[in-house]
Amino acid sequence: MVQTDLMEYCKSKNIMLTAYSPFGSPGRPSELKRGEADPHKLLEDPVVADIAGKHRRSPAQVLLRYHVQQGIPVIPKSNKPHHILENTKIFDFSLTEEDMAALKGLDRGWKACILEEIKAHPYYPFE
Ligand SMILES: NC(=O)c1ccc[n+]([C@@H]2O[C@H](COP(=O)([O-])OP(=O)(O)OC[C@H]3O[C@@H](n4cnc5c(N)ncnc54)[C@H](OP(=O)(O)O)[C@@H]3O)[C@@H](O)[C@H]2O)c1
């Protein structure tokens, strides 16, 4: 989910946006996954793999770098020390404009919230 409109809105109001589930939340229970287009296999995506190979980084590092390079804090989750360490090593390389465009091209056009219940909230922002 690229959500350029949300990013631009937050920037215009000086609101700091945080990116959660940067790997598509692959450990989510299957009932919370939304079919084949669901991004839960983002870490295995061939576009991400190509960019990772080019920079000699892992797919996880590429996906995290994508956010921080746009000035967006990102909060991956892991319970494995080697993954946590790997996920911190994203400040010593840069993605090219071409890489960033390719990653943006993975957009599924989805909005942030998958919880139907909150759509009735008076301040639901994703219409
Ligand atoms: N505020 C909200 O509404 C909201 C909503 C959703 C999520 N969140 C927060 O966002 C954070 C992350 O979300 P998430 O857990 O849904 O999804 P995520 O960070 O996209 O994915 C976590 C999964 O990625 C794996 N992983 C982590 N680092 C890896 C690496 N370097 N290589 C390979 N696999 C790696 C983890 O497995 P291992 O443990 O095996 O490494 C785990 O299965 C959490 O803190 C969550 O609470 C907030």
From TrEMBL:
Occurrences of domain NADP-dependent oxidoreductase (ranges): 3-107
Protein name stated in the entry: NADP-dependent oxidoreductase domain-containing protein
SUPFAM superfamilies hit by this protein: NAD(P)-linked oxidoreductase (SSF51430)
